[in-house]
Amino acid sequence: MQLYGYFRSSAAYRVRIVANLKGISLDHHPIDLSKGEQRDSVNLARNPQGLVPTLITDDGQPLTQSLALCEYLDECYPDPPLLPGDAAQRARIRALAQVIACDIHPLNNLRVLTHLTGALGLSQDSRLAWYRHWVATGLTAVETMLEPHRGRFCVGDQPTLADVCLVPQVFNAERFDCDLSAYPTIQAICEQARCLPAFAKAAPEVQPDAR
Question: Nearest Cα to 64, choosing from 4, 132, 150, 19?
């Protein structure tokens, strides 16, 4: 399988983590978001949204959207499961993942931030305030949601889809110097996860296209 992504894309980061957890070897193809390569005709043929990541399956099918890719890999390679437990536990895991991937991330990805300072003419300070506001709003909710059911990780003692989403989001928050002191549970979980080889090998700073 082939993964088209960008080393700092949190969406591509999620898929790399899952592949590592499952022991899946992916051929990585960098798409440089800083140069706009995601919008060229070749990438648009793979991903009509002009985004990353795109996964090309072994039979040549292009699949998009990181949560869909994570669940695809989980269904094809069910051990270890990303969504363990009963229906209620799986719903909790999905809810945590979606707070991050569907509520925090879309408001703060590169195309939104570029639109704020480009077409809307916001200053860099205003752009940063926007970013930090939505990170704080989302992570405050996540911190509260974690407490009733967490173990070493978001839900229990093994990483799940929730951790796969949380670690890349915290990486991005750190890049933008967000104050994370109000989230001790989140910080503790990320510290645990980053010690695992599957997470460490997926980190942006160790990718071949990192710079």
Answer: 4
| Contact predicate 180/139, CB 8 Å | yes
CA-atom Rg of the chain in angstroms: 17
Given the structure tokens 């799986």, which residue do they identify? 90
d(CA 101, CA 83): 16
Sequence-ordered list of residues with C-beta below 8 angstroms from that of 205, at least 6 positions apart, any chain? 7
User: What digits encode the pLDDT tens for the residues 164-176?
Assistant: 999 999 999 999 9
Residue 148: what pLDDT? 82
Q: Is residue 62 helix, strand or coil?
A: strand
| Over residues 48-70, mean pLDDT | 97
In order of their start, the domains of the chain are: 2-80 (3.40.30.10), 87-198 (1.20.1050.10)
pTM of the model: 0.97
Give CA angle at 205 (200, 206), nearest 5°: 60
3-state secondary structure (DSSP) of residue 195: coil
| Cβ-proximal residues to 19 (8 Å cutoff; 6+ apart), any chain | 3, 25, 26, 73, 202
